[in-house]
UniProtKB/TrEMBL annotation:
GO molecular function: 3-methylbutanoyl-CoA dehydrogenase activity; flavin adenine dinucleotide binding
Superkingdom, natural source: Bacteria
Protein name in UniProt: Acyl-CoA dehydrogenase
PANTHER family linked to this entry: ACYL-COA DEHYDROGENASE, ISOVALERYL-COA DEHYDROGENASE, MITOCHONDRIAL-RELATED
Domain Acyl-CoA dehydrogenase/oxidase N-terminal stretches: 33-125
Pfam families: Acyl-CoA_dh_2, Acyl-CoA_dh_N
Segments passing through the bilayer: none
Residue span, Acyl-CoA dehydrogenase C-terminal domain: 249-385
Alphabetically ordered keywords of this record: Oxidoreductase
Length: 421
């Protein structure tokens, strides 16, 4: 048996389970989550209870192999579940984005006690938040957040400030992108979230996705154990595609929920207009057309999301083949498919969530109904990774065969002088 075969044998592949059985475990929770979504959106109530219920039900371990206490779901099955969750509350899906990315990284990590420890934590319900992005004066591609060895101690200290720390306020651990002061290497530091040296703030001020628990997180001599520092160069290679798939599933779920809500509102409406086309609002052909077009957009967005998830599964499995060529091909396919999905889903869902208002009169803009949440949330999700750049990446690949950039960063642009140097 080759070394690659031994690794595959030692690490069961999370590739498929019965979706009906898997989804049946969580659908009652999704229904409960949907029950209070309008009030949470309107009153800015963070979904602590809802995320805690998902933790206890094992939702955070759906990708963990059954041999390690999880559900053994494939990547397409995970995102199919996330579409359903997003239809209930898209903010909850967004809050779990960093968790599932860290799970994915640990799934492809080298077999051994450290990996087993993390998989056991996931199976026990522990969640991971995300803290990568810095704002202000940080050069493009750099990190002001530092991880430093502590003289005379076995642990390290993490210091810095992150923004867009999505889900960290709910988490047990933080996936912290930082730089080591001793070696200069960029690393992921898994930081225990509940230590006094870590502060989380719910200060994200976007007009959408307001209850994701995103905002500022600060680290002031936060303790990090050496075994929880991972060189960023070892990060799972299809991570950018994986992160983008969350946005696709979220958009698809938003569109599905918008369709359901507007159809119910139209069906229940007793008032109609004198210049309409039918004696009842629900029988009006033009109103039916509006709802039908929104429904079609939702259907297409979900199909796009699930189709785009298939190459990511290939990339996951290719990580165990020992074939650099196959892994590269799979990673390219995953990146291009997720970018194509973002372009298409954005063009469908953002207009559809505005179109729903054509199916109602002035009552449709009532704050009591909070129907604008669908557009606000869809527009916000679609803005996270600029779609114009994704279109450029796809076009460059199709025309020139240019390999996509797998990891990108945001920061202060180089100065004109620096460009000339």
């Amino acid at each position: 048996m080759t070394a690659v075969q031994e690794r595959r044998a030692a690490q069961p592949i999370a590739s498929e389970t019965d979706y009906g059985t898997l989804a049946a475990r969580f659908r009652p929770l999704f229904a409960d989550i949907a029950e209070g979504v309008v009030e949470r959106e309107r009153d800015h109530v963070l979904p602590y209870e809802q995320i805690d219920a998902l933790k206890k039900a094992g939702f955070g371990a759906v990708r963990v192999p059954t041999s390690h206490g999880g559900s053994g779901a494939s990547i397409p099955q995970l995102f199919r579940l996330l579409v359903e969750l997003s239809a209930a509350d898209s903010n909850v899906t967004q809050a779990l984005r960093g968790h599932f990315a860290f799970v994915e990284d640990r799934l492809v990590a080298a077999d051994g006690p450290d990996r087993d420890t993390w998989l056991r934590r996931f199976a026990d319900g522990q969640l991971v938040g995300n803290a990568w992005t810095e704002i202000g004066d940080v050069p493009l591609g750099e990190a002001n957040t530092k991880v430093s060895p502590v003289p005379g101690e076995a642990h390290f200290f993490a210091n810095g400030t992150k923004y867009y720390s999505t889900g960290s306020i709910f988490a047990d651990w933080i996936d912290l992108y930082s730089q080591r002061t001793d070696t200069g290497a960029f690393v992921i530091a898994a930081v225990e979230a509940r230590q006094p040296a870590v502060t989380h703030s719910d200060d994200w001020n976007g007009f959408g996705q307001q209850t994701t628990g995103s905002g500022t997180s600060t680290y002031e001599n936060a303790i990090v154990q050496p075994e929880n520092i991972f060189d960023f160069s070892t990060r799972f290679k299809y991570q950018t595609a994986f992160y983008q798939l969350f946005h696709l599933a979220t958009l698809a779920g938003i569109a599905r929920a918008a369709t359901d809500v507007i159809a119910r509102r139209v069906a229940a409406r007793t008032r109609t207009f004198s210049h309409g086309n039918a004696p009842t609002y629900a029988q009006d052909a033009q109103i039916q057309q509006v709802v039908g077009e929104v429904s079609a957009a939702a259907h297409a967005a979900e199909a796009i999301a699930l189709h785009a998830a298939e190459p990511a599964q290939w990339a996951y499995e290719a990580a165990f083949t020992g074939s650099p060529d196959e892994e590269k091909s799979a990673n390219i396919a995953a990146e291009i498919a997720s970018a194509q999905g973002q372009i298409s889903a954005t063009a469908l869902v953002v207009p559809a969530t505005a179109t729903i208002f054509d199916a109602l009169g002035a009552s449709g803009v009532s704050r009591d109904w909070d129907l604008d949440r669908f557009w606000r949330n869809a527009r916000t999700v679609a803005s996270h990774n600029p779609v114009v750049f994704k279109a450029k990446v796809v076009g460059d690949y199709e025309i020139n065969g240019t390999e996509p950039v797998y990891v990108w960063a945001i920061g202060t642009a180089p100065s004109a002088e620096g460009d000339k140097a």
